[in-house]
Amino acid sequence: MLRFFPKFLQRFKGKKQPPAREEDTGGPSREPEARIEEPTRPLSNAQGEHTQAADNRVIAIALYPLHTTNRFILNFEKGDELIIEDDSDPDWYMACHLNEERRGFVPKSYLNLDRFGGEERWFFGNTNRADAERLLLQPENEPGSFLVRHSHAQGSYALSIKDIDPKTNEILIRHYKIRTLDRGGFFISPRNQFDTLKDLVEYYSNTDALCRILEQPCLRPHPAILDPLPNSRDEYEVPFESLEFFQTLGKGNFGEVFYGLWNGTVEVAIKRLISNGVQTDEFRREVAVMKAICHPKIVRLYAICTEREPFCIVMEYMCNGNLQHYLKTDLGKRLQLPSLVRICSQIADGMMYLEANNMIHRDLAARNILVGDGGIVKLADFGLARIVDEAIYVASGGKLPIRWAAPEAYTTGEFTIKSDVWSFGIALYEIFTHGGSPYSGMTNSQVSQLVTKQDYRMPKPSDPDCIDAVYEIMTMCWKKDPKDRPTFEFLYHFFTDFPVTSEASYREAE
Questions:
Q1: pLDDT at 188
Q2: Quick check: is 165 catalytic?
Q3: Does the global pTM surpass 0.70?
Q4: Which residues make Cβ contacts (< 8 Å) with residue 271, sequence separation at least 6?
Q5: C-alpha triplet 236, 233, 26: angle, nearest 5°
Q6: DSSP code string of 109-163
Q7: Which listed residue, 9, 74, 194, 315, has the most CB atoms within 10 A of its CB?
Q8: Is pLDDT larger for residue 469 or for residue 31?
Q9: For residue 103, what is the enclosing H or E element?
Q10: Are 408 and 482 in contact (CB under 8 A)?
Q11: Spatial contact of 137 and 168, defined as CB atoms under 8 Å apart
């Protein structure tokens, strides 16, 4: 019998559970339900008030329908109410359907636990301020787009609105605190109080009392099932038959990349590695280290398949491809300074994690940063330069990525976190030129000679989004002495605190 939270969820420890097998039943499995063998624990990840049944059970509302043949996943429709029985896993709830005695895993991103938000399109729950700005800044959201989210203060909410300055045409995100009354009810201005959040939103959708009238809810990225089920995520090696290959996504430094499914449920990117030089035992050891890395700004590695060559790595799928390509698309070209700054902040966040854990990337560039829905970006190909023999650590064309590598990296072969900082500066150049090529018009030989012999640095790009403060950060990353380059912690805080999207404090209603 499958053992649920929290006893069997011991990542990288103890005996491995056999992978879950799906039955080809043509619909949801109706096998007998597994039982919870451990006492449930109090829910801890929602700030708002829960809908509770008479026996104090926590009730969640489904924001989306979920239909799958995986017998361990609970199927439901949008608006269905589910009883949350355990939330100890970071990505999944154990839940039971309120009206039917069906139980299973449910992705947390599919549910809303706040009874005031319900299933409203504009309610974004535990989305923080930075993520609210990232979402609203997406080009698909017009001025007047808005969302309601939990505020940092327990039990309170915030209204975030996309605005545009009529004098400068600058895009801004405005934030308003929604306060609650002791007797129940909500208000932004004490003069106007409302029984529900819905009433508040409807009022400001028809009244010019904020920076602008609320027009339409922020577009919500449809959540995919990104993480393996708790009963299969610890699987180190998976059978080739568990992988389905649907579409070629491209070729990288280490082999070909495909879009596919793992266990018929999880959307994944499958890398089929170049075969020569890969040592199986070393490969498995390195992947074990990479698999243990779990950070929201680093692409997840799920599993490997080494039962046949070429070896496969199963990784998280990012729907919008690599950043270098995305910046050149119609949507990418529409990204302005605030959105570009948010991209840089996310990259620095992932690199700060590597820096804090004494790890290096070795191939940081826009082509190795992947873009998901809603403007999310994550570091990719981290560690593959160690998994594959150094002899085949090459860029397309058979040479080291001279245009991105720090001078000490290609003169001495030494890679450090400070050489990653140099590469980050080059990535900034790509980002703030919307995919421009570094050292355009020069050969690799000319680049290496100019950078190492003449201390040449690229001039400030002409793109209007590359303001002086951003170019100054680039040049700091390109200091000749690695010790003089900034840390990723500094870079993260620089871009996170960059004052381009909103005021430091909440606004008041007029």
A1: 94
A2: no
A3: yes
A4: 252, 254, 255, 256, 257, 258, 312, 313, 315
A5: 110
A6: GGEE-BTTTTT-TTB-TT--HHHHHHHHTSTTSPTTEEEEEE-SSTT-EEEEEEE
A7: 74
A8: 469
A9: strand 103-107
A10: yes
A11: no
CA–CA separation, 144 and 65 (whole Å): 28
User: CA-to-CA distance for 127 and 288, rounded, in angstroms?
Assistant: 31
Radius of gyration of the chain (CA): 25
The predicted pLDDT at position 52 comes to: 52
Strand-strand pairing, 103-107 and 92-97: antiparallel
239-274 per-position pLDDT tens digit = 888 888 999 888 766 678 999 988 777 889 998 887
pLDDT band at 211 (very low <50, low <70, confident <90, very high): very high
Cα–Cα distance for residue pair 388/370, rounded to 1 Å: 21
pLDDT bin (cut points 50, 70, 90) of residue 378 is very high
**279-288 burial, b for 16+ CB within 10 Å, e for fewer?**
eeeebeebbe
Tell me how far apart the alpha carbons of residues 198 and 209 are, in angstroms, rounded to a whole number. Answer: 17
Count Cα neighbours of 401 within 13 Å in the Cβ-side half-sphere. 25
Q: What is the dihedral of CA 406, 412, 415, 419, to 10 degrees?
A: -20
Q: Which of 89, 114, 234, 363 is catalytic?
A: 363
Query: What angle in degrees, to the nearest 10, is found between the helix axes of 468-477 and 488-496?
Result: 170
> Rounded to whole angstroms, how far apart are CA atoms 418 and 478?
10
Bridge partners (DSSP) of residue 61 are 81, 112
CB 270 within 8 A of CB 313: yes
Burial class of residue 458 in the structure, from the number of CB atoms within 10 Å of its CB (0-12 exposed, 13-18 middle, 19+ buried): buried
